[in-house]
Amino acid sequence: MTVATLGDVAIISDSGEQYLRAINTKGMNRDTLADNFIGAIQAEPSRHPLTFQNPYPGGHTLACLATHDCLLSHVVLFGVFYATFIPRNPSGYGGDSRVFFINPASREYNVSDFSREVAAGRIKGLGRPTSPSA
Known about the structure:
The chain is about 25% helix and about 30% strand. It has 5 helices and 8 strands; from the N terminus they run ααααβββββββαβ.
């Protein structure tokens, strides 16, 4: 998702090296990710602070948002594994984003972006309140 959002700079930069170090780390956890200068949030779905409303039950969600300082890469697999990684942004510009919702059974997918998902209130943690008391 990072490459789809930023292009090759995501791989050939120091952020790409961060990802590779993290991927190749045995026993990867929040501490080993932090050692590689990657912030991470990994939690059970009901406790994860960032959740998209995927139109496919049990589907995959892949998302990346580039801010000026960092990238937010979010992965949900089969609706049960949630992880968010936050490395530095190698491009230095923000605003680009991609969100893919994938149905692993039929291989169908929808493409969106963070702005559209936030505006529609389909992101828990970033969306609009759904009731006046929220």
